[in-house]
Amino acid sequence: MKKVFHVMYDDDEKLLVAARELVSKGIHVNEVYSPFPIHGIDPVIGIKRTRLAIASFMYAMTGLSLAVFFMWYTMISDWPMNIGGKPSFSFLENLPAFIPVSFEFSVFCAAHGMVITYLLRNGTLPGMPATNPDPRTTDDKFVMEITTDTNSMNAQDLESEIKKTDVFELSIKDVKES
Amino acid sequence: MQKESAIREPLILGHKTYKDITDDVVGPIMGPASLGWKILITISSIIAIYGIGSILYLISTGVGVWGLNKTVGWAWDITNFVWWVGIGHAGTLISAVLLLFRQKWRMAINRSAEAMTIFAVIMAAVFPGIHMGRIWLAYYVFPLPNQFGSLWVNFNSPLLWDVFAISTYFSVSLVFWYVGLIPDFATIRDRVTKPFAKKMYGIMSFGWSGRAKHWNRFEELSLVLAGIATPLVFSVHSIVSMDFATSVIPGWHTTIFPPYFVSGAVFSGFAMVQTLLLVMRKAYKLEDYIHVKHVEYMNIVIIVTGSIVGVAYLTELFISWYSGVEYESYAFINRFSGPYKAAYWTMMTCNVISPQLFWFKKIRRSLVATFILSIVVNIGMWFERYVIIVTSLHRDYLPSSWGEFIPTATDVGIFIGTLGIFLTLFLAFTRFFPVLALNELKTILKSSGESYKNEQVK
Question: Is B225's CB within 8 Å of A115's CB?
Fold first, then answer.
């Protein structure tokens, strides 16, 4: 059995102050649920900066190479065309005309690749069930989740430490450990 | 938390709390539809159906039902296409460029402006499709392997660049918009009580729960998408302008087209945002979120871009004379004194002169004046594209092939029809979607909300 504390605050700053206080006492905060991003919470509860931007850059490079390769294949290698009596059968001569499509396709791949990665990594996909502990966390309440299994403190001590912060509501549940 | 100067006008009026923001936006979605909304959507659907009928008539009969002829091969179709794409640009400018510049006032208008972008680009995409004549062969524009001897598309042609630009622009704007909507759909999901609505918003919210890590990714995603949408929006209308600029038609063959088209697009887009939002803020009682200051900011963008457009018009005239090319100068003399001079002077009055009225603070901050001028600008920008396309084509190098374009009822029907479809989609959006970006507005409440500002002054 583990105990799950859902500590609710009615203001983002109160949660931030409370999180700093609890973390300084060596308490581990599992998760924070909020209706909007709380700036400054990430380093406090140990969330690293996401690497999505790097992924996006890699998707962009993939898109760029695919576009350039495809245009070289169709326009230079497979079927060179003489358009308006102005043959341009070399890749370099054609390069300026290839820039717009290369750019557009890189953006296409970067944006869609990044969004798909984002949705998959979050596990937010059409029809997924909501997992926020309280419906008010998408409105104006902020919830911090603390569990006994990730903390060395016992339940009573945890509870008394949590209650020292500016709590709006506290719910304690017993959950079977899987 | 970010601080903001206390003397700056607050962006959220009234003494709002986080809960008030949710209620003000979600309330109208949960309540019954208003009578005004029902009347408006009925009228716009009827117009939309008329437009769809006109399109079906066009496709089943042929492009001959338009007023086009051998000399004027492009007229209302491409005019409407460029007009609609241009309108779309304001949404991306607001959500992407203003995000990069950290402009907080964008948060009240970005959601609906982006919706406008998406619907406008859909309307734009209709025209290149139906102007092909044989729309069932529209897949020829994509580089697909085929049985015609490896006949590939021509990557040297701006028309093909346009295919890539518009499809990238549309799909990227759509996902950018939707990603921002997901947390707000979650807010609605947790509020609505009707089981069907709860189910639908549950599906649309993708199970969003507002975890800290997810928000961390969300902010990074918004920033990167804004970063790549910014050059994208500039590239799209530049490429649209190259459809004209890379040809050898006097009046089209000018190097200033890309920046001139981009600023024209932003100009007309902001005018359309004003037209729609001034009505929406009243109908949905959002006056505290979209107030005079927001309108004023948008009007400032309109003066800037409108003046750029004005300078571009004058530059074109000057260069046509200075170039010494007879054909070039004739094209412009014909524009302002030929058979289409009424269109030219409408364009000049609506786009160059009327927005200059916004230099007066009284006019800039007057909602009625803004509404009237925004419609004037929309009309002017439609005429700009009409003037560029038709007057450049109708008198070409050979006087024997000079002709004129007279629109037919189908031309008019399809244009009016797209207005109807656009309005129907926009009205549906305002009814079922969160019209303000809830999660973003809540982040600025403490720095730009009225009651928090008052505390700072004390």
Answer: yes
Which one of A47, A119, A136 has the shortest CB-CB distance to B206?
A: A119
Read off the pLDDT of residues B340-376 as tens digits, 9 standing for 90 and up. Answer: 999 999 999 999 999 999 999 999 999 999 999 999 9
Which of A41, A122, A138 lies nearest to residue B214, judging by beta carbons? A122
The per-residue pLDDT for A100 is 93
Which range of residues forms the domain containing residue A105? 52-122
- CATH number of residue B200's parent domain: 1.20.1630.10
Domain boundary among A100, A122, A144: A122
The boundaries of the domain holding residue B124 are 18-144+152-457
- Evaluate whether B73 touches B65 at the Cβ level (below 8 Å): no
Asked, for residue A71, whether it belongs to a domain, the answer is yes
Say whether both A59 and A115 belong to one domain: yes
Quote the number of domains for chain B.
1
**A100 and A62 within one domain:** yes
Residue B48 binned pLDDT confidence (cut-offs 50, 70, 90): very high
Are A42 and A59 members of one domain?
no
Q: Do B216 and A132 touch (CB under 8 A)?
A: no
Task: Among B95, B151, B152, B156, pick the best mutation site for testing chain A contact (most A Cβ within 10 A).
Answer: B156
The terminus-to-terminus CA distance of chain B in angstroms comes to 19
Q: Is A165 domain-assigned?
A: yes
pLDDT of residue B396: 82
Q: Where are the alpha helices (DSSP H) in chain A?
A: 12-24, 41-44, 52-71, 91-122, 155-163
How many domains are contained in chain A? 2
Q: Are residues A69 and A34 in the same domain?
A: no
Residue in A closest to B22 by C-alpha: A139
- A57 and A117 housed in the same domain: yes
Cβ pairs bridging A and B (under 8 Å): 202
* Residue of chain B whose Cα is closest to the Cα of A11: B18
Note whether A44 and A57 are same-domain residues: no
Closest approach of B250 to chain A, Cα-based (Å)? 19
Picking from A105, A115, A168 by the largest number of B CB atoms within 10 A of its own CB, the best residue to mutate is: A115
B8 in a structural domain = no
Q: At residue B2, does pLDDT exceed 70?
A: no
pLDDT at A88 over 60: yes
The answer to whether residues A37 and A85 belong to one domain is no
Look at residue A127 and tell me if it is in a domain. Answer: no
The pair of three-digit structure tokens given for residue B125, joined into one six-digit string: 């995409």
Q: What angle do CA B178, B265, B436 make, to 5 degrees?
A: 35
Closest CB from B205, B215, B224 relative to A37: B215
Q: Is the pLDDT of residue A82 over 80?
A: no
